[in-house]
Design a protein that fits this description.
GMP Synthetase, Chain A, domain 3; 3 strands; globular; iron ion binding; Fe-S cluster biogenesis protein NfuA, 4Fe-4S-binding domain; NIF_FeS_clus_asmbl_NifU_C; iron-sulfur cluster binding
Length: about 80
């Protein structure tokens, strides 16, 4: 899979997650993908102060990204 295909798949995953975050006043943005394996995202809006943001990252964001792009090893939220 090419770098562009990986980015497209990660964006598809974020598009799937975004409505759930938007419904709680939050959002998510792809910041970068390093070596086609490590994704950095930015949780925004209400997600920045939510006590569940860590579990949102693991259970929601990371799982969904890996569903679309299985070669991704890590997903990290940067503020």
């Amino acid at each position: 899979m090419t770098t562009l295909e990986i980015k497209d798949n990660v964006e598809k995953a974020l598009s799937e997650i975004r409505p759930f975050l938007n419904s709680d006043g939050g959002d998510i943005t792809l910041v970068e993908i390093i070596d086609d394996k490590h994704v950095k995202v930015r949780l925004e809006g209400a997600c920045t102060s939510c006590s569940l943001s860590i579990s949102t990252m693991k259970a929601g964001v990371e799982t969904t990204i890996k569903k679309y792009a299985p070669q991704i090893e890590t997903v990290e939220n940067i503020s």
